[in-house]
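Batch manifest line 248
LIGAND: magnesium ion
JOB: complex structure
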Amino acid sequence: MTLKLPKIIGHRGACGYAPENTLESIKTAHEMGVEWVEIDVMLTRDLIPIIHHDDTLDRTTNGSGNVADATWEDIQQIEAGSWFADGFAGAKVPSLEETLELLIDLDMGLNLEIKPTPGKEIETAEVALDFLSRVWEDHDRLLLSSFSHVSLETAMDMAPEWARALLLEAEWLPNWKEIAGYLDAATINIDGNACTREQVEKIIDFGKPVIAYTINNPQRARLLQQWGVDAVFTDFPDIINEVLLKVH
Ligand code: G3P
Ligand code: MG
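JOB STATUS: finished
ARTIFACT:
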């Protein structure tokens, strides 16, 4: 497996232009020429993996309450587009299964962020990897990531050869190298708005590619690239694409 990382990864699709984590958002990214997208996966009460970011439905849908309390049947009844813009009315919270189908059709790469609801760290990774293993063949264009070390450990146990990214919060864990080593992380994904040049250099010295979230400011994107960051997540792929050098 040789990870073929792009310079730009569309964040939750292209969520500056379309409602995040919907099929519409992924299609929008694709129309902009984006090669990879990052999306978040979590489980419904009946263990169906869906593409959604928050623990609750309130911000990005017309539903409410915890995702962990909703069934897939409930999720299918709700709408996830009009909060963003009237033109997206009717957009749905997609299942992982239908999302993978779309990504394969569009020939796109995927960073699947395993985003377990509290207490579902193992199950979320298990179910997501089970679905992936049935359909995803291009492992050079697949990166699994998580802030949850338990989810990453589960992914490692199930599919050691699939690339994993350790996600670090703005405040780094003092033992991040040890954790990245234990989890055999292929990349280190950091908060690119909070990080310093010294921090980026520490990861470069550690010998791993650096991916920075979430970079919507073109000057910041250029600076991070100069520091040696390999790729950025962005809500506005077209704007960031204009400023990044294609080789460095
Ligand atoms: O994976 C990068 C980024 O998406 C992590 O933060 O909160 O946007 O999922 P969040
Ligand atoms: Mg994410």
